[in-house]
Write a structure and sequence with these properties.
This protein is α/β, with parallel strands linked by helices. The chain has a single domain, classed as 3-Layer(aba) Sandwich (Rossmann fold). It has a nine-stranded mixed sheet with strand order 2-1-5-4-6-3-7-8-9, with helices on both faces. α7 links the parallel β8 and β9. The chain is globular and about 45 Å long. About 40% of the residues are buried.
């Protein structure tokens, strides 16, 4: 985690006017303690803030979805397509997490949703503290949907509760069918798996049945929705899942 994975506790939130707000949490490494104690302290503080976030969401009837994946799975493209499908009936806002740039937040705004960017610097995940500050800037509407697009990483984001309603992992067919076995923590902590880029299946050696089998070994009963963000296949199924869950 923060000391053992190389994360930096300095991050930046870019508001709607692209002003750069600097935040630094107050957890300082104490090299006289064992790493396990530092990890326990970090997670404990995070979990307390996650509960505050969760209370905020529940009080305002906001469905918050934490989207996790490896880089390049298509999270932002999936979000763009979902915004178009959902915005006629739902108010949508998005917290974007990346190490650098506001490129994804700009794409989301162009698709029609309010968005705010968190730049984590050297950090490889979002945490509840970052999300808490972003919520104060974004101020999502009551009775709305909030998507939190986490930093592309299949390790560290699994450890950090953000206070979300559901965690959704997006996996693309351009990745190996062994990903659930290699990164079990991320798949075990997720409530739904989206298998994206299915339009590429005829051109790849991806073994879908092996992937589904590996996934069920790691998270028995997890629901899988197959989509192609490019051609729209399966997006209406995903839309209905998000509306009705």
């Amino acid at each position: 985690m923060c000391d053992t994975c190389g994360c930096n506790d300095v991050y930046h939130i870019l508001d709607h006017d692209h002003q750069d707000h600097h935040h630094q949490n107050m957890i300082e490494p104490d090299h006289h303690h064992k790493i396990i104690q530092i990890e326990t302290d970090v997670l404990s503080k995070n979990n307390l803030l996650a509960e505050r976030n969760r209370g905020y969401f529940e009080a305002r009837n906001i469905k918050a979805f934490n989207l996790v994946s490896s880089p390049g799975s298509g999270k932002t493209t999936v979000l763009e397509k979902l915004i178009v499908l959902l915005k006629p009936t739902l108010k949508i806002s998005v917290i974007e997490g990346d190490q650098q740039t506001a490129l994804d937040a700009n794409r989301i705004k162009a698709a029609g949703a309010d968005s705010i960017q968190i730049n984590t610097g050297n950090g490889c995940h979002l945490d509840a503290h970052m999300v808490n500050h972003a919520l104060k800037e974004l101020n999502p509407d009551e009775n709305s949907v909030l998507f939190i697009e986490n930093v592309g990483n299949l390790v560290c984001p699994a450890l950090f509760d953000l206070g979300e309603f559901k965690r959704i992992i997006i996996m693309s067919v351009t990745e190996g069918e062994d990903k659930p076995l290699k990164y079990p923590g991320m798949f075990q902590s997720s409530h739904l798996c989206i298998l994206n880029k299915t339009d590429l299946l005829p051109y790849l050696d991806f073994k879908k049945e092996a992937f589904l089998s590996n996934l069920q070994k790691i998270k028995p009963g997890i629901e899988v929705i197959e989509i192609s963000a490019k051609n729209g296949e399966g997006l209406n199924v995903l839309k209905e899942y998000l509306i009705n869950i």
